[in-house]
## 1
Amino acid sequence: MSPFAPILVSLAAAVLILASGRRANLREAWTLAAAAAKFLLVLALLPPALAGRPAEAVLFELSPGVRFALRADALGVSFALLSSGLWILTSVYSIGYMRGLKEHKQTRYFASFAVCLSSAVGIALSANLLTFIVFYEILTIATYPLVIHKEAPAAVRAGRKYLAYTLTAGVVLIAAAAIVWRAAGSLEFTAGGIGGLAGAGAGTIKALFVLFLAGVGVKASVMPLHGWLPTAMIAPTPVSALLHAVAVVKAGVFGALRVVGFVFGPRLMADHGLNMVLAVFAGATIVLASLLAFKQDNLKRRLAYSTVGHLSYIVLGAALLAPTAYAGAVLHMAFHATMKITLFFCAGAIYVRLHRENISQLDGVGRIMPWTMGAFALGAVGLAGLPPLDGFISKWYLGLGAAEAGRTAAILLLVGSGLLNAGYFFPILQRAFFRPAKEKVEGKGDASPLLVVPLAATAALSLILGLWPDLGARFMTLAKTAAAAVFGGGP
Amino acid sequence: MSEFLLGHYGYWLVFVLMALGLYGMVVKRNLVKKLIGMAVLQVAIIMFYVSTAVKWEATIPILDPALGASDPARYISPLQHCLMLTAIVVGVATSGVGYALVVTIWNRYKTLDEGELLERMKDDGDSE
Amino acid sequence: MGILNNSPALPVLILLPAAILIPLAGLVRERLAYHLAVLSTGLAAAVSALNLAKVLEGGAIHYWLGGWFPPIGIEYVLDHLSAFIVLVVNVIAFLVILHSRVLVAREIPAPGKHVPYYAVALLMLCGFNGILVTGDFFNLYVWLEISSLALYGLVAVGGKKSAVAAFRYLIMGTIGASFYLIGLAFLFTSTGTLNMADMKAVFPHIAGQPAAAVGLVLMVVGFGLKMALFPLHGWLPDAYTQAPSSSSALIAPVGTKVAAYVLFRLLFFVFVPEEAGRGLPVAQAVGWLSAAGIIFGSVMAIAQKEMKRMLAYSSIAQIGYIGLGIGLANSFGFIGAVLHVMNHAVMKALLFLTAGHFRMRLGHSRIPELDETARRRMPWTTAAFSVGALSMVGLPPAVGFFSKWYLALGTIDRSNWIFLGVILASSLLNAVYFFRVIERLYLVKSGPKDGESESAVSEAPASMLLPVLLLAAAIIVLGLLNAFVVKGVLQAAVPPGMT
């Protein structure tokens, strides 16, 4: 099964969506069909990845000596599964959201979404840095129409800020790749690090590290490069949900995992002390983002800062240079997604149903929208790292890895930020469930089923994966396989 | 020093002419004067080439029965002259195009002074 | 085919008689001028393709005018470099001429001027082809002047200000050509030969003399002016802006590239110093001036309010990339520069042609007045423009990314971090001025007053859309398949001795 198939499926869907712009139901059918097909095609790549013989597809050369190539290894399949799987749910949710608000330019929205997912899977399955960069940049451009969707002046400004950050990062990444190519003679992602890099001078390695940190750090929202993310919350909630909690930012941390594990490699990172620098940035981001989350009254902005913090969990996991921590990072990439997307779906449902965006307006919402706030509760508990949700599992592994690496500071950081998470989420629950509603609300019941079913599904998913982390997509095994590859030198 | 100046007086004359031509083309504000400068520059270049064709005690490059064809040092080099025939033609063509443009500019703006032209052009939009 | 033995001369031999026949054909029926122009450029493009195939197969082709061998006779040579650039020039020219019928009719109001327009355009293309194939320095001057005079004419048929722009270009262009001629005088007098290959053999004997250095520098300055190398670029913004859209689309992708080709020849193939692989300081000076030009052009483009002028300043910056590659004087720099000749030709042709569409349908190309009327009524044109813009910014897999990639590799090989920074920073500057236009096209609502005039706006006719869409498709396809071009043609074109 060629790794190209899932990428092409949603590109084809994008064309079909543009062509059926006038007939909304047909257009939406394309999205749903493509999402289902894509997930199944990625699922087919799972067994080879776990068996240690990843499916490969090698096309023509992009540059003499570097081919346009895909390789579905454990790390890549993990990211591809999570984004394609969640796309199915987000598509259903999008339909409910867009129709509920009678949004404009829906054709552009769904077509851009399809291209974004193509590029996300392309990023996941890239076999070398050049292919990675091609898809990374396509993702940047494909998300722009989604960020500026509302076309209000604030949205346009947010789009400009987004482009300024991401295009700069892209350019920096190109420089980094060019230097790697000349220094190491290879751009192929190699488990344990590209061999040729070991011979490069210390100055080159350090310069490369800075460039890569800036290049992937923007999408991974490592502070101080995170500035675009809270501003981009102006986009419609399904956009925020998938892209900024799942695809775009996850592409960033995925890039970080690739760079640490498959470009530099643990030994090179340790030799030059790069892991300490990375850990410091990640740690600072975790603390600052958690603190800043307290200040936000706008619900989506609070979720954005929470995302910034959690993304740095993943970066920290990579920086710890321990197999269990790396596995924890890969797990958190997937598990944070299920929880965060639940929270964003809830925020969107609240907006559609009650037109409220701020936390201070959420008094008593729990009684009006029990399913929504119930799901929110599950997601919040999981993000704080409590069992039986999947957030506990990934955090546990991160903690184990920190112990393995002997970094007690990291353990304290994880525990402390868990408390902070609780600190900024639980008041929301308290308001929703334990305070009386301030005003009369029209209509009865929760938001439309098109909105509630997806959010209940992701909440349930968080719970199920928390109890059986290896169910279905086998995230646990994938994470362990990826870590073993990086630290043991394998497929 | 005198050898440097007087021995190469041909080159110095050509150099002065070139400088005058360039001066006219660049500094003068009147368009026709610019074209005159261009002509002076082109003539200077032509002179330069032709002057390099001369040899001591050599005659024009048309076969002289008395001299025969055995010794090329008796005839000056014809190549530069041929090249410069082309260059003269090019100069004429360029001047022709230049003056045609000058006529057009006069018809449109009624001035041939560069400064005045820029003033009168200010109100026109780009490629209207 | 026996005729292909004369192949270097063929493009010239096709275009020159066509240029002469067009006025005659135009006397019979005016329409014939356009058809003859399309036919001859198409034929020239086809022949160029066959030539390139032949060169790839069997190496350089030599043609001796009149059967006189060098160094006495004039020879025409097609090696990998010139065959490649000839193909690019002729294909782009074919597409632009194919496109031009409607635009020429609209933008050149005087009825009697259409026929001479095509004749002059073909003369210019003939001149460009001549520059590209000739192996003789004075022959180069002749073709240079033929193409330049025709170029001045093409610029001058625009609006009111075009005659002044053309005049300014004439003055500066003649200075450039004259400098070249003076430089040639020095070199010819010192070496006694006009043939390029012969000059390469003889030059080491005179390499230390001041005359040789001055001659070379004068030649480089002369063509640097023609190439719009910073700070000799002054003629370009006005010339590209005031010329009619068809002329801009014909000149901008092609004209400066031909001058760049001459610099390639001079600095890498003919006057290579003994130290193999390192350019003369001349090449490095070209590199630094180009770096300045890149920044200057990009910054000035941001300040422009009219689209053609913005594209003109952008062209100065893009030519800077090619000059930067010259300055690097290593194989990646060379490959990046030559690839950019092709890439920029395709991108700029597309951008100027779409600007022409906007001017034709909207009546103007002023950026602050653009709004989504353009996108809604001219969706294909806007889409093609967007593809061109994204490519200029350097987003993969469009073609613009790859020239920057190879140039970046070249700068790393030379450890020239300033050049690397310039290349990358300019991508971001390009993004600023292109996204400004894209934002207006996609996001700015058209006002209520435009309701009635808006219905007058419609998509460009098919004859104009077809070349534009072909160019847009080429941007993606040539980008993805750039390795074929690099490995197949460009790596073989790298001058001997360059690392």
## 2
Amino acid sequence: MGFVYALIAAGLSLIFGLMEIVNFAHGEFLMVAMYVAFFAWLLARIDPLVSLPLTALALGVLGWAVYHGIIRWVLDGPMLAQIFATFGLAVLLRSGAQFAFGIDFRTVNDPLLAGRLALGPVSIGVPQLAASVTALGAFVALYLFLSRSETGVALQATAQDRQAASLMGIDTQRMFALGWVIGSACVGVAGALLAMFFYIFPDVGAPFALLAYVTVALGGFGNVPATLLAGVLVGLVEAFGGLLLTPALKYAAVFALYLGVVLWRPQGLFGRF
Amino acid sequence: MAAAGTLRPLLTRAVLVALLLGALAFPAVFTLPFPRHIMIMIFLYGALATAWNIIAGYCGQISLGQAVFFGIGAYTSSLLFRDLGLTPWAGMAGGVVIAVIVSQMIGYPVFRLRGHYFAIATIAVGEIVQALIVNWDAIGGARGVFVPIKRPDSFVNFQFHQSKAFYYYIALALLLLALGVTRLIERSRRGYYFRAVREDQEAAAALGVNVAREKLRALGVSAALTAMGGTFYAQYLLFIDPESVFPLSLSILICLVAVLGGVGTLWGPILGAAVLVPLQEGTRVMLGGTGKALDLLIYGALIIVISVLQPGGLMALLSRARTAGSAR
């Protein structure tokens, strides 16, 4: 699960690093992605794993639309306006899903991968394993794109210094939009992966989003590679917290970890301030 | 022009007195429970948003964990009343004391964080507290607490089953208290300290403001008022559970009310409550029963439109209209 968390958080981190906006609708983006994957399966019998590029594309379009429809207009506004614009979007998407699809829990009934794999004393569900591997792959692809390709470097330059980047001939508006497209596409991939084995309902995004905020803040806002490590850490603490305490307290353990870390290092584990 | 200059504050005062008289006379005119319920909710959320405004609007620390204090107020009075038979008024005082102590315990470490880190840390604290309460069996856990119903109506028991008028006046008093405290802070030296911290921490510290102490004081005042709202809520509904008094959505709603009205202004929060609460209750009554969440759909769209078009809230709109009026 850690890798999937990391992928969700990476999208958030990328957007924040670019323009210092926390997308409070991130969990709802995930929910939308899961519904896209679900309907691809329901209507066309395409397994979530196969429709993954489609889901990523759909979410990319959503990110692009959100950027141009909402974010562009609050970019220079106060932090509160930014928080509430994305929060309003979250409420809108969540209630929109409830309006359109109802509140029933849905699952993909005959996923491509099923069953469990026994590795010595530990047994892992095959879909979960496939999800982690794919998430890790997507993460590596994202990292390579950011650090190797010209566009990726331009994105990073914009994140570091908006004005200097635009002086260098980088179209920062385009970079912002691109950041939203890529950040949302990451969530699209994660959503498709989760759709293989998780229930799908309008409120599904909320706990994942909370974990994503913690993960991002833990790794340091805007630092994409550190997000991976933080994501794994969150996944481990969640699993062992649930095992050692009671399952009901596993999220509390994760949040306590976050508080402990930021109090010790206010900028996150690897953050620059 | 000079006459208009002296007339304006007088006019403003007259409008405020008229509003207050109207608020006092309201239950006499409207005897049905529903309009009274809406007014009570406006007062309650107005008071909660005013309390949030002290820490976030004036002191600039965006707390998304106000529900913690609200829940403490609700639980303290309800448990003392149920188990010891203590009057909820004493419970309210106890809730205030506990909320203030907890606020200082939370604030001391968390105030070292800034911006988004601070906001997310307050969310994290809220989630931890809710998880702990849900799993705390001695105080009912996820099942919540029923406040024992006592008859007949009595002020001591803080229960009025015959009429909502008593609740109405108590909520109004709560709101007036919150507004009075804000007014006091706004006018005092402390208010200037708070705003200095909001505008620039380093500059404030350089000028001799004890930044950490001022933040803790603002949070303490905010927590105390919020806890009183919690006790009121518990006595009004007579049932509380972690899901109703500790959720993140409550913390966010409190901020929204203030943001809608105008952050950092005295009348903003009550204005926001006066718009948002009837809208929410109204759409819920008309559309909520369909189970289609249409009310929330409208609510979400509205928030986006407001934050995009008018980040300063309704108060900014009002003052803009006012300057346009006086320019003529």
## 3
Amino acid sequence: MRGCWIIAGLTLREAARKKVMWTALLAGLGFLALFATALHFQIQDLDARSTTAFIRYQILSAMLMVALYVVDLLAVVMSILTSVDTISGEIASGTIQAIATKPIPRWHALIGKWLGFAGMIAVFVALTFGGTIAVAYAMSGVAPDHAIVGGALVLLECLLALTITLTVGTWFSTITSGVIVIGLHGLAFMGGWLEQMSGFTQSARLATVGVVTSLIMPSEAIWRRAEFDMQTPLAAALPFSPFATVSIPSTAMMGYAVVYLVIALIVGMYHFHRRDL
Amino acid sequence: MSNLSLTVPRGSIFGYLGPNGAGKSTSIKMLLGLVKPSGGEAMLLGQPAGTVQVRRRIGFLPEHFRFYEWLTPAELLRLHGRLCGMSASQLNERVPRMLELVGLMPHRDKRVRDFSKGMMQRIGLAQALIHEPEIVFLDEPTSGLDPMGRRVVRDVIRAQRERGATVFLNSHLLSEVEVTCDNVAFLKGGEVVASRNLQAFNREAVSVTVEARNISPQLLAGLADRGVSASLEGERLSATVGSPDDLPELLRHLVCSGAQVYAFTPRQASLEELFVRIMGEDRGL
């Protein structure tokens, strides 16, 4: 595993040296500042209107869920964009040749990159997701239920996006890989909404389409489960709102997502090991 | 590739020659495990080529050397050394020595992104040699280098032979190969069509141009009797002898037969001429 740790360290150092890490963190801080400003004005308005504590809590909770949804989206996009060029780009430029001829198994390079990016993404999620909850709690006293579970699920979704990006990158060019992974995420997004719709319209066939889409790419299902775990009981009871989880992805679906990630990583390792460079 | 079979003596510098598309880089990549052959097997140092065990004993400079340009040359060498399993203390000693060897010590604090093509070649050569491998594969190591850079690379290659390593050199610069290599193989259409020991090659046929007067028909007939092919154009005689050792006898025969010799210029066939002879003329353009 020596090669894995060397490449993981190199990946982190590259992210820091090329300012990728700092730019991502700056974007996260910018988002937190925007959220804090919006929350500040919302609290002022609620106070001015003497809103009841119950309604106040629901409105601020809804704001927090919107912010966490944006954090989730931001983190997934960061996971894809920062890692999409690492394998395919190095294969195209020939950079990988000098590494692949060193005395480490070739898959060590892939796992090393995965570990490096996973570490970076974990820091990003901890700071932005944790930061958003901390800002909301400090300013309004509102906190989501099961925040740790929610954060872990958001991280799982990001790691799934990272894994698929790296695996697809062992086959295709950077641009093609980006299109495929973003396309898959879009598919999952659409599937998630179809499943939501099915809960509202009681359409079994629509639900089937949604479930099949989630099986093809379970990323959006992971977010919907995180959202369900974190939202307030009132929001959960609302039948049709952007953040009401009408159709709740099961724990089995989360297990499926983990297995999906592991299999995707193994497929990527195998193909990277076998392919010509 | 088809029926590719090579024997490379240990501790020698081996030139791997052939026109573009002959399969030189592909076959090197197969030996390094970068490309999987559709059939057959390759052995390197007595073991199947491309395994981790074999890669520990080889170094490689790719034809188009690209690397993480955000690193400094010392960081780059440390990374490659660590990947080769070298310890921190070994690297502390080896990295400055390698930078000195390839002439990059004055540029040790620059980022690789600021390097010229020639400097990239030099750092690429250093990373291939950092762990003192038994076999070094160099794919076009002198392309993009100025004459001084070429000389540095030539000296480094010879130094590898002196420490007992085998150098496998793929190059289009035949003049470089001619002065550096001990053996060469010619590759065409994925097959080795000829190989030469360059020491023996230097003992092969020599053509000589003689500027002389009083060259009689009897003299020319005498040359034919001695097995020397010759042709006369005015006062210029062109002859070919079997080896450089035949030159004194040829000159003696000319003088003894009454020819007045003004110039006697032997000329060895170059590796380039041999290359063209083996490969055939390029019918492009």
## 4
Amino acid sequence: MRRLTPYLLIAPSLIFLGVLFFVPLVETVALAFQGGADNFARMRDDLNFNDAVTDTFAIIVIVVLLQLLLALVMALMLRHVQVGRGLVLWIWSIPLGVSDLAAGLVWLAILTDRGYLNTVLAKLGVISGPASWLTYETPATLLAAIVVAELWRATAIVLVILVAGLELIPKEFGEAADVFGATPWQRFRRVTLPLLKPSIQTALILRTVLAFEMFAVVLSLGGRNFPVLMSEAFNWQYAQQDYGVAAAYAVVVMAVSLAATAFYLVLLRSPAR
Amino acid sequence: MAEIVIDGVTKSFGPVAALERIDLRVADGEFLALLGPSGCGKTTLLRIIAGLETQTAGRVLIGGRDVSALPPRKRGLAMVFQNYAVFPHLRVRDNVGFGLRMAGADKARIASRVAGAAALLHIEPYLDRYPAQLSGGQRQRVAVARALAVEPSVLLMDEPLSNLDALLRLEMRAELKSVLRQAGTTTVYVTHDQTEAMGLADRIAVLRAGRIEQIGAPADIYARPASVFVGGFVGSPPMNFLPVPIAEGAADLHGLHLPAPKTSGHALLGVRAEDLDVAEAGLPFAVQVAEPMGSHLLLTGTCDAQRLRLVVAADRCVVVGDLLHVRPRRWTWMDPETGAAL
Amino acid sequence: MTGRRALFAVGVAVLCAWTLVPIYLIAAGAVGGQAMANAWPKPLLPPSFSLHTITDFFAIAGVWASALASVEVALLCVLFSLLLGLPAGYALARFAFPGATAYRLAILVTRAFPVAILALPLTVGFIRLGLYDTPLGVSLIHTVLALPFAVLVSSSLFAAIPHELEEAAWVFGCSGLRAFLRVVLPLALPGIAAVAIFAFVISWNEVFAASVLTVRHKTLTAYLLSVLSESPLHVQFAGGFVLIVPSVLFIFLVRRHLFAMWGIASR
């Protein structure tokens, strides 16, 4: 009723975010560039840097693509589930509440030397005794393990967004396509997919940004054998106490997250209606 | 009980003027209907009286007090909303007693007033139910009971019957009239339905495009509309308007001699469908549509290439294509340029 | 059932199993104890059904304390998110004010950034303010994570409550605040509870910021991360299990609101 009221109501949250988000953001950038490009040089010269970059990108490209496909398949399957749809959806959404650390520990239990996977493989006769999948000598399987763990944990995030997006598509569109003789595949490509584009865009942005933050899954499964950008940042900050280089890593992560977001916004741009 | 004075109230939403200099007085205990088509400003005016909107200029006085700057809860009024606005999370009993509880009345008083209002509106059986378990009509009664329970000086009603089906609306109208007559509260009632206004109000204020076109008792507005708009809006079917030439203070047409206020020129002859008698001679009327309404026969046709409507007895034998002659029993004159009464 | 339908049902079942079996396995591992953790080959059913491992796990110095710290941090996060987010959500829902879209955008922007990274620069500030290594400090960062969600979801919750109800409350004796407390809040409560639970889970699960900002008063996630390389397997299993259980429970509680919340917050 009074003109000022809405501003008074949003002020606390704005001030809070200003102090605890925007200010630190600026500080991180300032800290990273303190003393010129020194921090970035030290970051680049570090042994783990190249590995961290390639590992991070490798994971993200593989995981995001696989998750998009898997979530899409799951979302479409869900549409055809008649009995117990609520239950299936709930089960598939359970990983939403799982911390990345917990997910790492879960898959550690499965993939560790004396873990469940090896038990099954041994029973099937594929291997003779406990085998190592998560060591320094097995980078390929370590990567696969991390991909699987991330796939297990975070597909639900993409799934929920896609399901919500699918619900928004009026049934009539698909029915009209059927009337005009479209095959299920054509209906999917021409009707469903384009209308799902905004949701896919949102899901990709969210998932990619979260993926750049990936941290605990990698640490729990690979320890320091599989450096990623975030784990390096953490290491420089906490163990080495070198805040400058840590900040440099932070800036890199922020920059690539923004770049990825911009990329998706442009790639999946919806034509103005 | 209180008198309401609207003094020069104007309301603009940016460049759009919703109300222009409204001056209005509602006597203590009077039932005033604000009648008009959508967008005429009647709801805006009601909300300004309630304090839910702030006027751009002007004052509102209730019981002699200037309430213009006061929030709704300090104005001593109660309101029944179009969609009832009954609180879904409270039982009917607590809904009806809401205003009293907010005012800090003691439990005994709340209980007795709630019982009284419930009895008046026949909702005693529902007092312990939740609104979701009630029908629309029942919820509407709860809304009215809630308003009456606080014994307000002024009662405001915003199209309370418009969401009910036709039969229920008729019943509720009668009930409302008797209940409000008993209570004797000053009431302002917004509606776009002219039969509702005619049936319920002591006086009707007809609004159009933010201005009051006419205020008066229902019978006056009906018989002596102040403009073409009022004549056409009030009454069903709408008043007929025929452009006729005037010479020397009268209209001579088709053998009829009708005195007119103007000396010469053109004027609009306003005559209601039921005020036209079928006769041997008079205005020629070519029947195009005959609608049997049960209680009467509604004829639509043309007279001198102007559309005319006529009401005749239900059992009269009339067929499309018939040519009848009609004489007006009662009529009024309007200025063709301004639309105002002459 | 036709062949296609059978295949479809199998597919759905496999995907459900894919989600549930790992959770079962870590539960079995946790409950099975040290024996289970080191057993080879691993039995699918724990040999002994004892909660020993869980109790032993909590008995480890620092574990019980860190679990309590996690709860404290999460509760503070819920408190702050609601205190800051509900009024803002109400403002967005009820007032069309200049700057509303900019505000919404600013809120959304925080999600385009890996927010946890802000823990790095805040370390210095927190040390100075005495917030370093305290549950309060960690909860502030978690609130930054949960706040956009709280604002956007509560905004649509409040928008769904008819404005007429508030107007009726105003007419019948309530001031703006009183009407909010007596009419709007009770009606929005189920949704708000869901937001609170989600904020709790976000805080409970968060690892990076909690690890950076704590030394001796770690949350459960920070603690588990720090002892990852040193602790024996059965402890890690127990830790994972304890982390998962509240989250799964909570997702069950808010399952009905899942769509509404993710759908809104991701727009």
